[in-house]
Amino acid sequence: MSSSKLYGGIEGGGTKFICIVAGGPDEIIEEARFATTTPQQTLRQVCAFFRPFAGQKRLHSIGLGTFGPLDLDPASPTYGYITSTPKPGWGGTNILGILQSALGVRVAMDVDVAASALGEQRWGASQGHDPSLYLTVGTGIGGCYLAGGKPLRGMVGSEMGHVRIPHHRQADPFDGCCPYHGDCFEGLASGPSIQERFGQPAESLADDHPFWELEAGYIAAALANTILTFSPRKIVLGGGVMQRAFLFAKIRRRVGELLNGYLSHPTLTGPMDEYIVPPALGHRSGVLGGVAMAMQLEQSN
Amino acid sequence: MSSSKLYGGIEGGGTKFICIVAGGPDEIIEEARFATTTPQQTLRQVCAFFRPFAGQKRLHSIGLGTFGPLDLDPASPTYGYITSTPKPGWGGTNILGILQSALGVRVAMDVDVAASALGEQRWGASQGHDPSLYLTVGTGIGGCYLAGGKPLRGMVGSEMGHVRIPHHRQADPFDGCCPYHGDCFEGLASGPSIQERFGQPAESLADDHPFWELEAGYIAAALANTILTFSPRKIVLGGGVMQRAFLFAKIRRRVGELLNGYLSHPTLTGPMDEYIVPPALGHRSGVLGGVAMAMQLEQSN
Q: Domain A6-115+283-299: which topology?
């Protein structure tokens, strides 16, 4: 076992927290998963997992990517809190403060999709490509655009899953399942939208089901809009729905049709096999993104 | 007349080139307009306008915002060229090189909408607000998002006028007028789309024409998508169609309806009167943006 510095990564999800201690993607020392129950119980388990390493002083820092919404404004009195989440019991949790005071190490925090984007850019599919986009299509839809190696942020956090895209009502009369917007992108293309339409999860819908063309079309519309606005140099698509790997070819084809040659860059007029891609870190984009964030924290010292 | 340094600003448009020599918005020394005919003729007039100031050595630098598309990659052999424009005679014009060699001063160049965005952020409606968005709705639709005071750029230039938004086909069966995309944002909401629908220009369509609700809805859809993605702190709407000032109230209301309280920032849940605004520099956003670009060039020395 090497004696190099170690970093912690945490991916906080709605059903589980994944934790690793690592020196990098090729040096994963320990890994564990804990069910997301109450903040007290789950964070106690998370802290117990990291404490031996923190005690040895080998654990330099931790990076946390978690479900939100989060207060990420360092000037705010509730900086580092999970704010108004519908997840019962988690609203108002000072997750950053709890981890830092329990473990005595610095913790970097961002939303889950930002951690995955950073992980993929540091060691994965978007390495060496800036700007890049990471989009997750699963229970929810969220995206993170990295420019200059950092998540691009405006006045509030990015919620690109909730953009409006053309809804093909004739072929797809479903009203959408977003409680705020009905047929926004997430309302039309998230996993739960498929469950609501067909009474079965996205995982079990047949490969040749005609809906997949519509699903690919919705994802492609959102991607084409992003390309027309801030053309990333690499697009990584993760999340549960994207486990259906045949979607990639459909999405690439449809993005090409939507752009229709208007942008003359060879990447955008070609087949896009190397442009719109799955994550290279698999299910570890998020936790390794946490490790990347922890390393950045060190460099910012 | 002050003896402070002077800067040139050029707004290159499809019908005219506007040129100013100025020390800033309150010190405009000279201003002229030249019809956009051939590059030879128009640029000869532009150079003749600036030459007396360049000869006196008082003119430090020039900023040019022009129609495109442009090659803005400094590493490219055709850097500073207008590339594949449909404007007859202008494709392949080395506009940056012609101006710099004729006048012997440095010239900063960007697309027209970027110049307007920079002008408004330096002295106008978005001053002190970063990030900000400038969107022009006129003959074409284009936008520039400024982050850290600079136009955000991806692999290719931004073409946010060509994003797809929901098209209300029942109320508005028009197929859209974009030769590439049909009913993209520009195809549905540009000045020419109004001319094609009703056989009259946007300027003369009655204030109470029901189409204005649809027009405001299209603009609001594009703005709501931008807010959900990278929430600017100020949105400035310019261009010929936005001369119809009653559109602002309709757009603000519709953006609120589309966001539907999902983003809890007070700016986005309130009336947005100070958030979605007209340019403060009027018809000079572009040329003064050129002056701002010229000043930035000096600072980068």
A: Nucleotidyltransferase; domain 5 (3.30.420)
